[in-house]
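cron nightly-structures :: item 1 of 1
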Amino acid sequence: MLELDGSFGEGGGQILRTSLALSLITGKPFHLRNVRARRSKPGLQPQDLQSVLSAAALGKASVRGASLRSTDLVFEPGPVGAGAYTFDIGTAGATGLVLHTIYLPLARRGGGPAEVTLVGGTHVTTSPSFHFLDGTWRRYLELAGLHVSLRLDRPGFYPRGGGVVRAFLQPAARLRGLNMRERGPVTIRGVSAVAGLDRNIARRQARWAVFRLGQAGHEARIDEESWEGGPGTVLALTVETEPVPAVFVGLGARGKPAETVADEAVEEVLAYLHASDALVDPHSADQLVLPLALAEGPSEYRTTEVTRHLTTNVAVIRHFLDRDIAIEGEEGAPGRVVVGPPAV
């Protein structure tokens, strides 16, 4: 059984999610202590607990310590089964984080197509929103040979949650390595949406984003939408480039001006565009390394920022897989990730 310490590196839930995914794929059990030790609320939170329960369900696993706020977890996997699954977080916890836990085991070990319905938060802070998952994350996976379709049935915002995302996964016995250095020419488009709120908020978010981007010398076309459900607001800005666009999101909150929502999304776009000419955004850089560590060929990509999430994820992967993964560049600066050929 692998012994893992959840307090190293970024010390958050990513250590747990990557460990669960690789345990199901490799068949290796693990003991994780100090779960989420570096977070203001350590231990398993609702979305983390649902990640554990979801992984256990699809992998027929034996689990000890799967309870709210637990800081010690033992996970012993069984065979992964494809099929239809529904997982309800029960709060506004991030559906995207649960999806990140289970998609690779289902695609690699499920043996057939799978359909997953996730209920919870679809647009919540510090986690991948639906727009990012559909516009960026899914596109990278397609390049590597893993096909995922996503559908937003109902948006879910903090604190109410209740959003519904459906994911349709095809089996992927083989994954391709990727070589991605520079991005191509860029254009910027976006969606400014409100759910259960005055549409004027969406208009303000869109107009301020266009103004801010224009000040920096970038034109943008932003559509305005009104959704059922909510309440909540979102501004998703897409940097269209080849071979994969980069999506950056600002989210509303009670008492938060629409202009501040726009500022948050715009600042991420500008940081991405001005840091370097690398293709891979900081959020994708740490999420890509896991599927590429399972690919048949070597991979190389440049990212606009080396993050603690990236270095931590690589450290976790090394516990489970015999794969040479190198990160060039200082934390907080642009860098390069090189995944060597699989061990013979």
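cron nightly-structures :: done
The two ends are 23 Å apart (CA to CA).
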